[in-house]
Every structure is written in structure tokens, then in C-alpha cells.
């Protein structure tokens, strides 16, 4: 077959396939679904910089956390819980070998028995010499000596009892119980390991009580008020919650120049939240937050920023009127705005908000 005939054969074959596809029944037709555009609001950098809110990053944490440790040294006999277990207040958590403490308590019991016998003997001598002294058959010196012996016997008995109390206290430290109801979040030692005083063995968090801890700069801490409303955006889920400021630290000495605040999370919104989740919080300020950024700074609202893993971006509109996610590098926060260092210029539009879900390629229409 010549090259020309081969070409004609190939073209004829493709033509036949194409005509067969086009000439099929209704079931063979290609159905194209046209997606309705998402209505969006666009803006330019610097147009929405009212500065009436304070934006900060924070983390979800348990309302109460305890590192479980012991006050005695010894081998761990058994750990009764695992990570993720829910425990009740007073529930046994860890058992530590206490044979030496039991031996000391047995010694204390023996000392108590000996002291009690000595006290009983001293009591008899005291009673007898008191009677003789009253009959003028014993001197005052003899009565004084017997009285001293009697008081010393009582003191020895009390000392032995205190030694036993100490042994009992030490023995109680060998059986560790939960200080409150919660969930085990960390297990640092296993059975057979050596427990040292003050060394954590387990960590328990009060899962029924969650809060947000955030750091505020010294220029903004004075603009907050305790009890004020706060909006919480959970980065991993995109869920928005409402809370209130419950604590405002008045010292940054141990927090690197940042002032820590606590924001409560209502019980109805705690489902699906776990300690350690990262959030953004937005808190209305008592007065307008002064923006001290340079005149040429590119400022956009924090609410327009999209967080995906460690990347940050915002949506713009492409030439085809579709949403286009553009990665940007951020700088300092200024109130409820953030500086864009690269990825967006001052004269470019970006999507400020949308009436539906945005993703790359979805058709968009600007709100009139």
C-alpha cells in the first residue's frame, strides 16, 4: 500500500468513527452542564482598612490540663489507661512499686508498739510516785524524774505515729488517680520504667472544656476588654464560631513580648474541635486601631486570605471570569488587615467575599 493510500485509509477510518459517534441515539449524546457563576464582591488593596478589629492567630486548648507525676521514686508496676481513654475524677491511673514504703510502715508500726509499751510502764511509775509523793514517801526530785520519763515516753509514741503517717502518705503517692474528669492525651512512660518525682507520666486534658489561647501585641492589648465578643475561624475546617474574651494577661514577661488572652468556646460549638487546632480570631476593638503601615503597603482584609496547609493566598478573577487562587506572601498585621509582601499589586482586584464556595476555575460574577 502506497503512503497516499495509507493516509486515505486512516482519514477514512477516523471519519467513520466520528460519524458513528455523531449519529448515535439520544443516549450517546454528550451532555454539558453549565455551572451558575458565584456572585462575588471585589476590592482593591487599601479599600477596606477600617481598622476596627484586632486579628490574631491562636490555638484551641483544653480548659484544664494536668501533667500526672508522682512524688516517690520507683518502678512502674502498671499503667491502667492509654492515650485517648476518657477517665473520671478519682480513677486509678498508675501503680508504682511500693515495697520499700510498705517496709517502712511496718517498721513504724513496730516502733508504735514499742513506744506504747514504754508509755504504759512510764504511766505506772508516774502514778505510783505521785501517790508516794502525796504521802510524803517520795521526794520532789524523784517525782520530777518520773514525770520526765513519762513525758518522754508520750513524745516517743507521737513520733512513731508521725513516722507511720509519713509512710502512709508516701504509699498514697504510689497509686496515682485522676485529679479531674478528662481524656488522656499523652503517655510518656510505660510499665517497667522508673518514675521520678516531678517527671510526667501521663497528660490529661479536660475535653469537656475548650478555649482558644491567642497572643496580642503590646500596641493592641489596651484596645481589648474582658467579656468582649470574638469571632473564631478554625483553619482546618473553615468553621466560624462565636466566643468571648474571658482572660487578658497583664504581663508579657514570660511570653516573648506578647500578651496572652483566653477566649471561651460555647458548648454547642465544641463538636469536631480538638485541642491543638490552629485558629484565627477577630475581636472588635474599643476604638479604631491605628494603621502604622507605610503609604505604599498593600493591605487586604484578613477575611479574604485563604489558608491551605502552610500556604496563604487569595482569590482573583481571571480573564475568563473564573476564580483564580493566587499564592501570596504576608507581612505584619494591622488591625483586621494584613500586608501582602508579594503576589498582589496595589492596582489589582481581588475577591473580598463570595456568596458561594470558591475554588480554582469556578465561574464568578461581580456583584453589582
Integer-rounded radius of gyration:
39 Å
Please identify the structural class as seen in this structure.
Answer: alpha+beta
Helix content: 10-25%
Biggest sheet statistics? 6 strands, antiparallel, barrel
**Beta-sheet strand percentage?**
25-35%
The CATH topology assignment of the largest domain is conserved putative lor/sdh protein from methanococcus maripaludis s2 fold
CATH architecture of the largest domain: Beta Barrel
Order of helices and strands: HEEEEEEHHEEEEEEEEEEEEEEEEE
Low-confidence sequence ranges: 1-33
DSSP summary, beta strand count: 23
Number of helical runs?
3
- CA-CA gap between termini: 65 Å
Q: Globular, elongated, flat, extended or rod-shaped: what is the shape?
A: elongated
Output the CATH class name of the largest domain. Answer: Mainly Beta
Mean of residue pLDDT values: 83
Strand order in the sheet with the most strands = 2-11-14-13-12-15
How many domains is the backbone divided into?
4
